[in-house]
Amino acid sequence: LGKDDPFVKFHIKQGLLLIIGEVAVWMLMMVLWIFFPILQLANVFLFVLAVVGIVRVVNGEMKELPLIGHLAKSFNF
Hints:
There is one protein chain. With 77 residues, the chain is mainly α. The chain contains two helices and no strands.
């Protein structure tokens, strides 16, 4: 519906960044299982960022996610 809408594109990029982070943490957990507790903290952090992103979408805000949001600017579509 809103593929040309800047608001939609902004939040798609932020969400894509979170998915990439989750997949990376999951892959690290499979390989480096000894660091499972530390990587679980990374999972919790990414979950909190997802909730923050959902709240911002519902409120109609276009703010970047804390700490990692600036990385989404590198996605060009």
